[in-house]
Write a structure and sequence with these properties.
The chain has 138 residues and is of the alpha+beta class. It is built from five helices and six strands. The radius of gyration is 17 Å and the shape is globular.
Length: 138
């Protein structure tokens, strides 16, 4: 089965020999961008976690299968640009537009800083509100 994942190929400034010949290609796989998105989003105050089924995500983490948990993150690479969609769970009682805007900024900043790609847009979908009482009710 052929993998249908995309990788970003870029010439990084300074990656050329002084005689002008290329040293080679640099490829950034969408799984790497997905990891950056996950860490950036979860670093924002008010974000509880990336959305998804806690049971499935926990099992995926235990067995080391990141692809199951990454279904809440969509990456669309087009040349040197990338569009991102991420589903998050946010803490109840927070101002949702502010938290979502902070998620957009954090993701855009980190992806551009770490990959050199241009982020065209970051769509944030607030999937659920998480509360502490919710765990007590179960």
């Amino acid at each position: 089965m052929k993998e249908n994942r995309k990788a970003h190929t870029s010439r990084i400034p300074g990656a050329l020999k002084s005689d002008g010949s290329e040293m080679g290609l640099i490829k950034i796989h969408e799984n790497v961008i997905s990891s950056i998105v996950r860490k950036a989003a979860c670093s924002v105050n008010g974000v509880i976690r990336i959305a998804g089924s806690p049971l499935v995500d926990n099992i995926a983490e235990i067995i080391g299968n990141r692809r199951i948990g990454d279904r809440s993150i969509a990456i669309n690479i087009n040349g040197d640009t990338v569009a991102i969609e991420v589903k998050v769970n946010i803490a109840y009682g927070t101002h949702l537009p502010t938290v979502a805007a902070n998620v957009q900024s954090a993701i855009m900043r980190e992806v551009e800083k770490m990959t050199g790609m241009t982020v065209t847009n970051v769509n944030v979908i607030v999937q659920e509100l998480d509360t502490e009482e919710r765990e007590d009710e179960i």
